[in-house]
Amino acid sequence: MFALIQAAGWPIWPIILASIVAVAIIGERIWTLRLNVVAPRNLLPLVVREYREAGVSSEMLTRLQKHSPLGQIFSAGLKNDTSTREVMKESIEEAGRAVAHQLERYLTTLGTIGSISPLMGLLGTLVGMIEIFGSNTPVSGNNPAQLAHGISVALYNAAFGILVAIPSIMFYRYFRAKVDELVVEMELQALKLVEIIHGDRKG
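Request: output the structure for the sequence above.
Response:
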């Protein structure tokens, strides 16, 4: 592996750095965007039961805030349980926007890596081409070693750039769709909570 990096020259290092960041983001988002972590299905029945038994308490709201992103949305709604349906919905929508922003954390960076990795590979290709043209001088003629190194730099950087870009873009699109799916799920559960509290729906 080190021989490949050495053959690819210095332009490969920004691509390697970008790949490390991309792998870290992908791993973190896979772990964070799990359904049972973001919007656990059993949370709504538990909240409704506790609300009917003891009402809203500061301890309950604090626990929901720390529980999950869905818990943060429920907490925002329950703070306004005595207000009108519209006020409660507005507080839930505001909390939902903040939670959605949290779920999209690092995705812009991942998308940027997917977009610029081929460009970094192209930069390496250009550096390699410059070395190839520099290997042929009027004084010394062709320099086979420099020519081979220039070809290696050009090809390896182009390949590594594409290799980093493809999974980065794939996971970026996957995570964006996953966030949208989770936001819809949380909106539906929050709407059920509003309807139950205001007596339009049975628990």
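Residues 144-197 form the longest helix (54 residues).
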